[in-house]
Amino acid sequence: MLRGSLIQVLKIATLRNTSRRSMTTLPKVIVQNREDDEDIHLSFKFGTSELPERQFNFKRSKTEDLGRVFSRIINNISSAIAKKQKKKKTSSETDTSTTDDFNVQLTYKGTCVCEEEKNCDAWKNGAVLSVAGIEYEVSVNAPYVKSINLPCSIMAGFPLYPKLELEFADQEDSKIVWYKTAEKLVNGGINNKANNQKWVNAGEGYFYFPETDDVGRFIKVICTPYQDSRTGLDKEAISAGMVEAGPGLCPFDERHLYTSSLTDKGSFRCVSYNILADLYADSEYSRTVLFPYCPPYALALDYRKQLLLKEILGYNGDVICLQEVDSKVFHSDLYPLLKIAGLEGVFSEKGGQVVEGLACFFRTSKFKLKDSKRVVLSEILNSDPVFSDIHTKIYENQTLAEKIIARTTTLQVVLLESQEVLGKFLLIANTHLYFRPDADNVRLLQTITCVRYIENILKQTKEKDPNCEIAVVFCGDFNSCPEFGVYEFLTTGSISQDSPDWKSVPEEAVEGVKTSHSLKLDSSCGSPPYTNYTSGFYGCLDYIFYDTDLLKVSSIVPLPDHADVTQHVALPSITFPSDHLALICTLQWLQG
User: CA 126, CA 495: separation in Å to the nearest integer?
Assistant: First the structure.
């Protein structure tokens, strides 16, 4: 039932007006003439009785004479036809055909364009290119599919979508059609086997959900790019492999039963999830040391993405905070998928050379983005006078200072305005604290820095609008269990100078720090036995802290059964795409 509703939501979200077509009956030659490029790029499809239709692409200098382009077109097509004929001939056959007798010309408003004209001036919208008697309408800077690809791993029951790179085109407006091979290829095969098969239409839209009956079939997708009323050339991609059977019912499918519908007005569902970045999952060290119990194929990003996207979509979250998000995954997978599902997103990459970071998505029917900020904690400690007291204490211990300066721990802050409750604002904070097991002192300092920054943002916002009411939700992977200082500081509002966390590493001890904060926070999902479970460690590291003065918890989605978590030893596994578990709760505005 849930899967059906998910498919329906995505299909409705991706419906486009597919009846739009160019008024011309001529095929097109696409000319890309970018200001920042010294060359022009031409693309058109051409075929004859000797040569099945194929796409020809040309890259030529803008200052080159038009006649030289014509010569290149004739040469390339002639060579393609000759190669095709050579394959068909036997040694006793004589080639009596010729490809040297066709002409190429360009006309504009009924007049032939001179072959001495430069490319930069010759190619204009509305001109007509004639190749061997076939006429093409010239379309300059038309919508164009630069690349289209399908993932290596495709599983029945999981959303499939193309990786698109478009130019002068809008993904939302472009037409995407899906096909599958009519016959199942039981013994496997490669792309040329798929190409030799008959294709049948399988659907239309950005997503395709392969069915169980699709197992053993190849998938093809064709994209026709659009922008406003303009259209470009189709481009297709064929799956490298066949559709495979999925892992069966995943534990998150059962959790989806609690989130099958959107939240009511005045409520919003929060999700916090460390999704395990690819650089930490798919490496030799991960396969042999960190997660040796997980099959290598299940650590591959193409496999895990399918589980992650289906899981996240099924939670129907209104505010989704993610950690360990690969930059490419955000831009190519999460953002386009969740946008179609009605959410907008903000990405904050970590500092340094790391290409993963934090992502916050919010449902646009419930919230409007007012502001977003990304701060590297070590940088603001050194530059902002708000943190001068903490900075002074840190630099009393040079060893500690060097460790903190080297960290690229980042805080993401997103200010949202409620679209449902007048005058209500939501300040979402999202972070992923330092991971070393003995670094409780560093994590506590990082938490104090985060809270101080949040308090300062609240102060500045209220100075601009004294009547606004801002609730705080602080999500993330804090890498700290409930018995340590981070949890104590956030939930009680203070930490004493006697906290054992200050001396977690004796040579990096922090002396004389006693501080408090004004936020009223509690953990919405409590303190479960674990949110991270591997063969070497398990514990509660992830939290959704919420503002108890302005919000209340109306429901919590239970964590998976322990038997499910340990069915394949630990996390990640073939049914769990991350080594962490997602936290999900529904929060409700208090009436004030």
Answer: 72
Domain range for residue 537?
A: 251-589
Sheet holding 367-376, edge to edge: 367-376, 410-418, 424-432, 469-477, 542-547, 521-523
- pLDDT tens string 389-425: 999 999 999 999 999 999 999 999 999 999 999 999 9
Closest by CA position to 426, among listed 472, 368, 458, 464: 472
Burial class (CB in 10 A: 0-12, 13-18, 19+), 59: exposed
Indicate whether 345 and 407 sit together in one domain: yes
Q: Is 265 helix (H, G, I), strand (E, B) or coil?
A: coil
Contacts of 284 (CB under 8 A, 6+ apart): none
Q: Find the distance separating the first CA and the last CA of the chain, reported in whole Å.
A: 38
Measured distance CA(381)–CA(446) in Å, rounded: 9
Highest mean pLDDT among 18-32, 71-85, 270-284: 270-284
User: In sequence order, what E strands does 337-461 have?
Assistant: 343-349, 356-363, 367-376, 410-418, 424-432
Cα distance between residue 554 and residue 155, in whole Å: 35
| Nearest one of 194, 169, 170, 165 to 182, comparing CA atoms | 194
User: Which one-letter DSSP state was computed for residue 88?
Assistant: H
At 284-309, the pLDDT tens digits run: 999 999 999 999 999 999 999 999 99
Domain boundary among 238, 261, 279: 238
The domain that holds 156 is classified in CATH as 2.60.40.2700
- Let me know whether 545 and 491 are in one domain: yes
Give the pLDDT mean for 456-460: 96
Pull the structure tokens for residue 463: 């100075």
Residue 213: CB atoms within 10 Å: 11
Integer Cα distance of 342 and 6 in angstroms: 13
Q: Is 477 a catalytic residue?
A: yes
Catalytic residue among 214, 326, 477, 542: 477
CA dist list (Å): 574 to 10, 24, 210, 320, 323? 25, 51, 19, 23, 21
pLDDT score of 4: 52
Q: How far apart are CA 40 and CA 33, in angstroms?
A: 5
Mean pLDDT for the chain?
A: 92
Distance CA 163, CA 356 (A): 19
Helices (H) and strands (E) in the chain, counts: 17, 31
